[in-house]
C-alpha cells in the first residue's frame, strides 16, 4: 500500500499513529556560524537542540539544548547574530563540539539507547545531518556516532500529504495553519515548530520512513 493510500485509510488522532515505523522521533535543527557575503570554512555548529517526541502520544517528552563555542570563527558575525538571535555571550565559555557530542551521547544513553527502542532524527531538509555535522566532524577529525547516519526529512512527508514540496519551515506552518512558535532560525524554536508540523502530519495518518542516509 502506498503512503498516500495509508493516509487515506487511516483514522485521525493517536489511534492513527500506532503503526509507525518508530517509537520516538528526535527533532533536530542546528544553527551555525555564517556571514552575509562569504562562506565560512569551516562552518561550525553554535546551537545544538533536539526534542524527544513520542510518536504514539504526540508529546515532547524531553529536550537536549546546548549552545556551542566555535573555534575558528569564534567571534559571531553581525549577520549571524541578526539571523539566529544568538549573541556572543551565549556561546562564550560553552562546550566545544566534541564536548557537546559527548554530552548528547550521555543524554541519548539515558533517554533512548535501550534494546528495542526504534527512533529516527527528523530535520527540516537534509543539511543538518548530511552536510553540517559530517563536514564539521571531518574538519576536526571527530568520529560521529552511527545514530546520526539516518534521518527523516520532514519536507518529504509534507510533500506526500499536500502534493507540494515546501521551500522551508514557514510555508509548512502556513499551509497547515499552525501558529509559529518563537523566532525563525532560533534552533530550539525551529525544533518546536518542526514538532508541531510532525504532530499535524501524524494526526493526518501519515506513516514516516527514513529518507536520508550516509
Characterization of this structure:
Helix content is 37%, strand content 17%. The protein is an alpha/beta fold and 214 residues long. The chain has one domain: 2-Layer Sandwich (Nucleotidyltransferase, domain 5). Strands 1, 2, 3, 4, 5, 6 and 7 form a seven-stranded mixed beta sheet that branches.
Write the SSE topology.
Elements: H1 3-9, E1 24-28, E2 31-32, E3 45-54, E4 59-67, H2 78-84, H3 88-91, H4 97-111, E5 119-123, H5 127-139, E6 150-153, H6 154-162, H7 169-175, H8 187-203, E7 212-213
Parallel strand pairs: 1-5, 5-6
Antiparallel strand pairs: 1-3, 2-3, 3-4, 6-7
Helix pairs in contact: 6-8
Measured as a percent range, the helix fraction is 25-40%
Largest sheet: 7 strands, mixed
CATH A-level architecture: 2-Layer Sandwich
The CATH homologous superfamily corresponds to: Ribonuclease H-like superfamily/Ribonuclease H
Poorly predicted residue ranges: 1-16
| Total of helices | 8
Instruction: Name the shape in a single word.
Output: globular
Distance between the ends: 27 Å
How many distinct folded domains?
Answer: 1
Strand content: 15-25%
CATH topology, what is it called?
Nucleotidyltransferase, domain 5
Write down the CATH class. Alpha Beta
Could you tell me the radius of gyration in angstroms?
A: 17 Å
Total number of strands: 7
Structural class: alpha/beta
- H/E series: HEEEEHHHEHEHHHE
The overall pLDDT average reads 92
Keywords: Exonuclease, Hydrolase, Nuclease
GO molecular function, one term: 3'-5'-RNA exonuclease activity
Domain Exonuclease: 24-207
Pfam family, one: RNase_T
Amino acid at each position: 500500500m502506498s503512503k498516500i493510500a495509508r493516509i487515506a485509510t487511516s483514522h485521525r488522532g493517536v489511534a492513527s499513529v500506532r503503526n509507525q515505523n518508530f517509537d520516538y522521533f528526535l527533532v533536530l535543527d542546528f544553527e551555525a556560524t555564517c556571514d552575509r557575503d562569504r562562506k565560512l570554512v569551516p562552518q561550525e555548529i553554535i546551537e545544538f537542540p533536539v526534542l524527544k517526541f513520542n510518536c504514539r502520544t504526540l508529546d515532547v517528552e524531553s529536550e537536549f539544548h546546548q549552545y556551542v563555542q566555535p573555534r575558528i570563527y569564534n567571534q559571531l558575525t553581525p549577520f549571524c547574530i541578526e539571523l539566529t538571535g544568538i549573541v556572543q555571550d551565549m556561546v562564550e565559555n560553552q562546550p566545544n563540539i566534541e564536548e557537546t557530542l559527548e554530552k548528547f551521547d550521555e543524554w541519548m544513553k539515558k533517554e533512548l539507547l535501550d534494546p528495542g527502542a526504534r527512533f529516527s532524527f527528523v530535520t527540516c531538509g537534509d543539511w543538518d545531518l548530511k552536510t553540517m555535522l559530517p563536514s564539521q566532524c571531518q574538519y576536526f577529525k571527530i568520529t560521529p556516532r552511527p545514530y546520526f547516519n539516518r534521518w527523516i526529512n520532514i519536507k518529504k512527508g509534507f510533500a506526500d500529504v499536500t502534493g507540494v514540496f515546501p521551500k522551508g519551515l514557514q510555508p509548512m506552518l502556513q499551509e497547515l495553519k499552525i501558529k509559529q512558535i518563537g523566532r525563525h532560525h532560533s534552533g530550539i524554536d525551529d525544533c518546536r515548530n518542526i514538532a508541531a508540523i510532525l504532530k499535524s502530519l501524524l494526526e493526518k495518518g501519515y506513516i514516516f520512513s527514513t529518507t536520508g542516509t550516509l
